[in-house]
């Protein structure tokens, strides 16, 4: 290649750089920033998970010691500071169970409702609905319980939802509707759930007909 051809190549490169070079540099910078941001986000998320895990461990200790004040403090901290982390939902569900057992159904409802409204995880949300419907059944708020179960659950929860729906309907003496719910529950439940299936069959038989 002679000097003239080399000059032409150099001029082409300069022209190309003038047109595209700055854009490529900016794209490269943006890629680096995105990568750094992604790593920083993962690091901060990991720190949050670690903190939430420690707090969840403290919750279990408070439960073992029957320290209801500590349980209440921890669950509020979880819901306030770690609301997007699974441990917060686990904490709220456990706290709701403890509070209901101690007679504080109002606080129990509040935590279950928090999981239902704020959880992105469908499993936690449906578990909270199932427990809330059970709590409403105990309080004889049957129609409210049925409203909680009105949404279509994922396949793995259909059997459990229908069982609870059957309980709510039977409590209202809606025998035929309860019978249909129990039958659907048995149809949808895993055959490995032997004890639960036997109990539902017992309830179905008790309805007669």
TrEMBL record:
Membrane topology is:
Single-pass membrane protein
Annotated localization: Cell membrane; Membrane
**What is the official name of this protein in its record?**
Ancillary SecYEG translocon subunit/Cell division coordinator CpoB TPR domain-containing protein
What is the source species?
Candidatus Pandoraea novymonadis
Where does it mainly reside? membrane
Pfam hit, one: TPR_21
The UniProt keywords, alphabetically, are:
Cell membrane, Chaperone, Membrane, Transmembrane, Transmembrane helix
For this protein, the parts annotated as crossing the membrane are: 24-41
Give all residue intervals belonging to the Ancillary SecYEG translocon subunit/Cell division coordinator CpoB TPR domain.
14-208
Q: Which InterPro entries match?
A: SecYEG/CpoB_TPR (IPR018704), YfgM (IPR026039)
């Amino acid at each position: 290649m002679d000097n003239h051809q080399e000059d032409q190549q150099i001029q082409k490169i300069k022209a190309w750089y003038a047109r595209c070079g700055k854009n490529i540099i900016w794209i490269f910078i943006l890629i680096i920033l995105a990568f750094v941001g992604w790593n920083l986000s993962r690091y901060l998320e990991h720190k949050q998970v670690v903190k939430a895990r420690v707090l969840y461990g403290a919750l279990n200790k408070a439960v073992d010691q029957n320290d209801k004040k500590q349980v209440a403090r921890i669950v509020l901290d979880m819901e306030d500071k770690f609301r997007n982390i699974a441990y917060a939902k686990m904490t709220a569900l456990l706290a709701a169970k403890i509070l209901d057992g101690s007679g504080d159904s109002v606080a129990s409802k509040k935590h279950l409702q928090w999981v239902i409204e704020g959880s992105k995880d469908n499993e936690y949300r449906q578990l909270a609905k199932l427990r809330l419907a059970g709590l409403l059944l105990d309080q004889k708020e049957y129609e409210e319980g049925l409203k909680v179960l009105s949404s279509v659950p994922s396949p793995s929860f259909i059997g459990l939802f229908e069982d609870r729906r059957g309980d709510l309907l039977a409590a209202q003496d809606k025998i035929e509707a309860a019978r249909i719910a129990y039958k659907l529950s048995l149809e949808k439940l895993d055959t490995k759930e032997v004890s639960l299936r036997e109990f539902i069959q017992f309830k179905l038989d008790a309805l007669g007909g």
